[in-house]
Task: inverse folding
């Protein structure tokens, strides 16, 4: 007869202390989060200075420019929130754009050391990693007992379809680590006797969040306001809410004062400064969430790679929901299970979370409902609230981003409850494991699509441009710089980050005035020269040039004070291939025969024409 296990092997070893197990769990979450962050951005890590995000190279170029300009502005004591280096002669109000000033300042040494493209990639990767880790910290230290539950919730939120979608070059929206910090510090205001310190900390955090992701801060504030109101009005919480209300309001008052002081100049520029505008340059109907998108799978996921992805988003960077039917079903089941076993206080929290998700889901549908790509005539609540100040500058589709943290919390609460429950039948445990796997595995992210982009000309990198542009003078590439032709800002970013000096450009990728009904628009209002060059580069057809055309172009040159026009051998087009030969023939027809300088064609504009 074989010996019993206890006699053959001795007493079973004692499990490691809880602190050791928790530290192991923390380390595993850190490693998984880091692996996912590098995995998603791996296409860029192959060569950060050469590769670009395929579906959004224009935004990547913009953020690279913002990093270079912000660092340059701070080190040269220039205004980081308004510049005349682009959109000559009017300049650009960066306070109504996405400035990421804090990132530009903090990472300025790195930008000067390794260049804007590599710094952009470092920040993008750190954003994803930090979002996972800060959510994990909030969940594991404040909201759930199980490290596994915290890991599931945090990793889902950080690598949810919306976050991976915005990883296509959006340094502002991928800064999701700000949200759990704002939640933590907001609820810290309930503590008695600490309202001054807690309000001060939250005020500074609000100012930082505004400088990195103002639209994200606005959505977070709306979501927290809705949650707190619903939570406090629930019968189970009214007594507690009344007790903490005075301290909470005092802390909020301090927050408002501190944030107001720190943001007084940016807010003045935003709402009353030069080159401001009202509303947005984007159509809220186009940039709204399709109802069917909530049940669809994203393109950059295992399900998408298997051919289950869709094109229901306005563009690949705005897959803000795309949770898939399995996850929606699992979330509903988890919510019901939690509700049935919850005490009144937990039910109040679930009620507030459910209402929050429903409200922001409906608002994300925009002014009118769309179903599976077809626009209906059914008006939606956003048609009313979208007319309000500040709200009219937001894209309704992005309101769906609020839903992902709600789902992550529900998943974390469910795993936490399952871990704390007494042992169950193995089939039940297996069913839960399979349910989570079926819902989450298809959403595992795949790497962002990347391509090689056209190099910055040696004419710029060698500093030769300084021989053809006076100090603070105006140089323009052709086509002129806009979102789909970002070369001008890429060249500027290189010159600024390599301490070569400054040159200004007409146009640029920015939001400014000039849209219909006083709203904003992307880039400057087109003029003759920019329209002619766009036509040539886009279609390959050289426009007919008359004496009248020449006079209009000369007027544009004087308006922009252009000294030098440059055509690179390879022009980067963010949406299509650019016909450089047609641009050369068009430039020759407008300005005469060009010079060959280094690796560019160059036209010097006589003083009489500028």
Result:
């Amino acid at each position: 007869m074989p010996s019993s296990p206890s006699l053959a092997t001795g007493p079973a070893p004692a499990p490691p202390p809880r602190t050791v197990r928790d530290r192991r769990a923390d380390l595993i979450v850190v490693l998984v989060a880091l692996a996912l962050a590098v995995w998603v951005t791996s296409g860029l890590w192959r060569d950060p200075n050469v590769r670009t995000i395929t579906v959004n190279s224009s935004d990547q170029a913009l953020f690279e420019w913002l990093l270079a300009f912000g660092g340059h502005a701070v080190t040269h004591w220039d205004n980081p929130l308004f510049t005349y280096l682009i959109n000559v002669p009017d300049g650009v109000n960066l306070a109504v754009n996405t400035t990421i000033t804090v990132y530009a300042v903090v990472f300025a040494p790195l930008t000067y050391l390794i260049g804007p493209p590599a710094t952009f990639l470092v920040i993008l990767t750190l954003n994803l990693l930090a979002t996972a880790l800060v959510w994990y910290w909030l969940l594991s230290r404040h909201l759930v007992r199980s490290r596994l539950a915290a890991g599931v919730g945090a990793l889902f939120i950080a690598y949810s379809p919306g976050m991976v979608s915005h990883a296509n070059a959006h340094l502002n929206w991928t800064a999701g680590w700000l949200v759990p910090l704002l939640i933590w510090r907001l609820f810290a205001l309930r503590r008695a006797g600490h309202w001054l310190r807690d309000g001060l900390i939250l005020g500074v955090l609000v100012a930082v969040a505004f400088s990195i992701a103002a639209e994200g801060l606005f959505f977070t504030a709306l979501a927290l306001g809705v949650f707190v109101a619903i939570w406090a009005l629930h019968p189970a919480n009214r007594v507690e809410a009344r007790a903490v209300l005075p301290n909470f309001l005092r802390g909020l008052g301090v927050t408002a004062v501190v944030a107001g002081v720190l943001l007084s100049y940016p807010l003045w520029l935003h709402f009353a400064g030069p080159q401001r505008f009202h509303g947005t340059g984007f159509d809220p109907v186009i940039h709204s969430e399709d109802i069917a998108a909530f049940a669809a799978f994203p393109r950059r996921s295992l399900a998408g790679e298997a051919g289950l992805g869709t094109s229901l988003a306005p563009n690949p960077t705005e897959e803000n929901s795309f949770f898939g039917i399995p996850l929606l079903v699992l979330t509903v089941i988890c919510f019901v299970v939690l509700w049935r076993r919850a005490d009144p206080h937990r039910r109040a929290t679930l009620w507030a979370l459910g209402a929050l998700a429903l409200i922001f889901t409906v608002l994300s549908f925009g002014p009118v409902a769309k179903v599976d790509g077809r626009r209906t005539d059914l008006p939606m609540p956003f048609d009313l609230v979208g007319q309000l100040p500040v709200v009219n500058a937001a894209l309704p589709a992005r309101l769906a981003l609020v839903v992902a943290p709600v789902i992550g919390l529900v998943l974390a609460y469910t795993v936490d409850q399952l871990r704390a429950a007494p042992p169950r039948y193995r089939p039940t445990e297996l069913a839960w494991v399979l349910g989570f796997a079926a819902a989450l595995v298809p959403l595992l992210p795949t790497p962002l699509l990347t391509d090689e982009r056209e190099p910055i000309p040696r004419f710029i990198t060698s500093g030769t441009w300084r021989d053809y542009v006076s100090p603070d003078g105006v140089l323009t590439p052709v086509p002129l710089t806009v979102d789909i032709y970002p070369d001008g800002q890429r060249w500027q970013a290189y010159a600024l980050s390599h301490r070569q000096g400054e040159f200004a450009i007409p146009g640029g990728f920015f939001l400014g005035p000039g849209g219909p009904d006083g709203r904003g628009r992307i880039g400057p209002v087109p003029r003759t020269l920019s329209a002619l060059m766009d036509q040539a580069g886009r279609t390959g057809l050289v426009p007919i040039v008359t004496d009248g055309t020449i006079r209009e172009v000369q007027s544009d040159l004087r308006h922009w004070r252009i000294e030098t026009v440059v055509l690179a051998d390879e022009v980067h087009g963010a949406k299509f291939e650019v016909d450089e030969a047609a641009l050369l023939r068009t430039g020759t027809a407008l300005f005469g025969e060009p010079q060959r300088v280094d690796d560019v064609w160059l036209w010097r504009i006589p003083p009489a024409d500028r």
Confidence is low (pLDDT under 50) at residues 1-12. The first helix runs from residue 5 to 9. The chain has 24 helices and twelve strands. The first strand starts at residue 51 and ends at 53.
